[in-house]
TrEMBL record:
PANTHER family: GH15225P-RELATED, SENTRIN/SUMO-SPECIFIC PROTEASE. It comes from Protomyces lactucae-debilis. GO terms for molecular function: deSUMOylase activity. PROSITE patterns: ULP_PROTEASE. The keyword Membrane does not apply. Residues 17-181 form the Ubiquitin-like protease family profile domain. The lineage of its organism: Eukaryota, Fungi, Dikarya, Ascomycota, Taphrinomycotina. This is Senp1 mutant in complex with sumo-1. Belongs to the peptidase C48 family. Keywords: Hydrolase, Protease, Thiol protease. One of its GO terms (cellular component) is nucleus.
């Protein structure tokens, strides 16, 4: 994928984030995706949404939930949206990567449906995801004197969510789920698509646009 280049060589740098050879190598079949790849891809989704005039969508990075909201509550994340220059109270969709030790999932705050979605390719439980994201949205809306929403919890039924059949493709499932949700498309890929999706994510990163 990156030939014989040094592992620490920078292949592309955007969004104030370098992608090195060893980052891109996590997209090889059988490898676990790292934070750098997932965060870069989330930024590409954000950029595509802005170019398409969909300023009501935002993807947070991998540090938002597991490193900040979960252990620290709203105090740990209250500046995330401001730094990203995003008004969460106006967002119709907020996508949040969830890292559970050795597993990646995706969560979505869907304002149109008034629900907090939890997409787990291994069908695990959501833990505190619904509670914490509801707390976050309540605080964000309060800042702008927006009427508080009543959020329902949503875990997609098995026929709407792809099932992971190994222990290493979770990051690809999470990124691909975010990409589908961001454009309002069904999450209709499956385990057999993983090799192609890894290549597509790598190409998107190297070319700087979503494929």
């Amino acid at each position: 994928m990156a030939g014989n280049l040094p592992q620490d060589e920078v292949l592309i740098e955007r969004f104030n984030q370098p992608i090195r050879v060893d980052d891109l190598m996590t997209l090889r079949p059988g490898a676990w995706l790292n934070d750098e790849v997932i965060n870069f891809y989330m930024n590409l989704i954000n950029e595509r949404s802005k170019q398409d005039g969909q300023s009501t969508l935002h993807c947070f990075n991998t540090f938002f939930y597991s490193n900040s909201l979960l252990p620290k509550g709203y105090a740990g994340v209250k500046r995330f949206a401001k730094r990203a220059k995003v008004d969460i109270a106006k967002c119709e969709m907020v996508l949040v990567p969830i890292h559970l030790g050795v597993h990646w999932c995706m969560s979505a705050v869907n304002r149109r449906e008034k629900r907090i979605e939890y997409w787990d390719s291994l069908r695990g439980g959501p833990g505190q995801v619904h509670t914490r994201l509801r707390e976050y949205m309540r605080n964000e809306d309060a800042q702008f004197a927006k009427e508080e929403e009543t959020w329902s919890n949503y875990i997609p039924p098995s026929d709407e969510a792809p099932l992971q059949k190994n222990g290493h493709d979770c990051g690809v499932f999470a990124c691909s789920t975010a990409e589908c949700l961001a454009r309002g498309a069904p999450v209709d890929f499956d385990q057999e698509d993983m090799r192609e999706l890894r290549v597509r994510i790598a190409a998107s990163i190297l070319d700087g646009k979503i494929y």
